[in-house]
Amino acid sequence: MDQSYALGLEPYQTQEPDSACQRYAGGQDPYQGSAGGHGPCQPHEPGYGLCRPGYSPYDDQIPDPKSRMLAIQNAKAYLLKSSTTSGLNLYDHLANMLTKILDEQPTNAVDIIENISKDVKWAQFQKKMDTLRDQHEILPTFEAAEKRKSLFLKADGGDEELEEETGETPLPNVMETAFYFEQAGIGLSKDESFHIFLALKKLISVQPIQTCRFWGKILGLEMNYIIAEVQYREGEEDAEVEEEEGTEEGGKGMGEVEDKDEEKEEDEPPKSTYKPPPVIPKEENGTGANKYVYFVCNEPGKPWVKLPPLTPAQIVCARKIKKFFTGRLDAPVVSFPPFPGNEANYLRAQIARISAGTHISPIGFYQFAEEEGDEEEEAEGGRDTYEENPDFQPLSVAEMVDSLSAWVHHGQSILRQGRCVWLNPFQKSEEEEEEEEEEEEEEEKAEKPDELQQETGPPLLTPVSEDEGIQNIPAWTAQPSTNLIPQYAVAVLQSNRWPGAYAFASGKKFGNIYFGWGHKYSPENHTPALPPPAQAEYPSGPEITETRDPTLAEELAFQAAREEASAAAEEEEEDVAEDDEEEEDD
Amino acid sequence: TEEMVAQAERLRGRFQGDPAAEYACAQINAEDAERWFGEGKEPVIKEEARLVATIEQIDRAVGIVPRGAFVKTPLGSVRENRNFEGLSLTEAKKLSSYFHFTEPVNVKNKTLLEKADLDPSTDFLDSLEHDIPPGSWTVQLEKGGTVVVLRSLLWLGLTFYHVPMTKQYGYIYFGTGEKNLDLPFML
């Protein structure tokens, strides 16, 4: 029954109901009785229900049951027929659709029935029970945005902070500085500047900070560093200083124990007279090269990490090597001469060098604090401190650009020793320092294994025009930001010794910043230091002398000579004694 | 021209900023000097020539494009691919999906096995993976992962950007115009 209908009902597969109707000759067709002979109504046509004879709602008479049964079966068979394109059949689809509608009971179901139909069809292709749950893929942008979100949240107690903020805030106006640098064509995008702004604000709320400045950005291989220069409020650093001293003392204790062990050995190889050059102590936190504390983070939104204070040995070594930063603070720095520390220390050393070399300000902005008794200190290392000049009169932009002497360094330069203030490492103790300094300067000419001369560097607040250039290149290049509109131009200085360091000045405002890889410029190629020649194992002297082993011929000759001598010396006992001594020497 | 490039490679030091500035080449062999100037005068190079040569060098050495941006037609000519939809995020993080936009040197040297995986219409250029020394490119995702930025360490200042899943890419150079010969020491 179904098959014949399958064949006969094929015309219904096509989209032309009218022609199908015509060709449909045999078989009982309950739909053919539709009015007008325009073909049986398709289910989607609005008059469908009305076209069916015998099924009208107004028909109470039950037609012949046998024919009615047959009609029902025909209808069902038609509905059950599966389509060739999708493998579904109308019966199941209608059943599913009605089930869904009755389950969900949407409002205005008749209006959205096409969508329901589409949804049901689509649902066919989805597995209902899947052991593998499709994990909702988190876009990396989403993750990054989450991190930054914390920046945008206001801290608790925002109302209270508003009152304090009317006073001096340590927070620098990063956007303003960014604007000025943008005039010169330097800077980060506005998005990033603002993120950095917020990150600095967060840093300030966490740490007790007196002044804060956005120092710059150093690029790295895997990640970049964003660096903030910070000065603590007075008295806040004591806790950390004590910890460091504790570890240093522990280290010295260990050294002493090891020395005692060596002395207990019986066979003493000749003691080496090598004394490692004395470790130059680092400068106190808050002075000299350690004047500022630096915080870094890889991206705004990540927590700020404090960089450790600087030791002079690190500066000396950093001058000799040239390495890229990887972006991870704990990465080892593999180099020769071996760098004492990991990437955090190397980063700190480079920051210190850049700050010392390129932090400049318009002349007159900073002046020396007036103190009594400055003269004695001047001989040592120059003045340490400066303060803002309340009477600062800014020079015009044209003057700032034309003469480099209108700018002065306010970053203290680092001596060759690695410190800003020279320290003689042979001093006995710090307490005697003041008394002995004058005496030691006289004693320097006395014999000492290492003579150290006092190193002096350019004093603070020297004009920039005295900077040495490299070969023919001047140390700084000055330009106004625009030649077209001189009244609003900003004076911009680029450093040629540290490419990436910029300074601007406009009226009373000025700023320094660094964007770059963190290396000094050198026109020649970098040649790493050669390893030093191998040291002699022990000093040659009359007691121990290294000579070549005697060859066989020499030994035989010596033996022959000895026998002759011993034969000749049987009578003379003194000669035998001398021969014994000679034998021992072999 | 090739001569200009060869000459410019010997020069060191910064550009002056004045296109007419002249450099004296101090390191040229005696033969070359005789060839060019029989009078015994030292050959000079104008800065504009040096500039052109440097640009050419940079383009040749580190000018890069993403894979699929250019296709080679069966006739041999290279065209821009109008259907290029951008690299996916995972592809964009790999160095192998970027090519040098110059005459390929290494493509023919690959083994047959590797060649079977390649698609000749898009993989006809040198990939960045085999650059010497390895690690001379840094790949970073910026702006929350929406932009991938490659920076060259050989020519410090060359930056290439690409927004994944879009057609946008490009490279630009900001810098002093000097090759970083210390690269092996710095890695």
Automatic annotation (TrEMBL), chain B:
Coiled coil: none annotated. It comes from the Eukaryota. Keywords: Cell projection, Cilium, Cilium biogenesis/degradation, Cytoplasm, Cytoskeleton, Flagellum. The keyword Cytoplasm applies. GO terms for biological process: axoneme assembly; cilium movement involved in cell motility; motile cilium assembly. Its main location: other. One of its GO terms (cellular component) is kinocilium. It is found in: Cell projection, Kinocilium; Cytoplasm, Cytoskeleton, Flagellum axoneme. Belongs to the flagellar radial spoke RSP9 family. This is Radial spoke head protein 9 homolog. It comes from Opisthocomus hoazin (Hoatzin). The lineage of its organism: Eukaryota, Metazoa, Chordata, Craniata, Vertebrata.
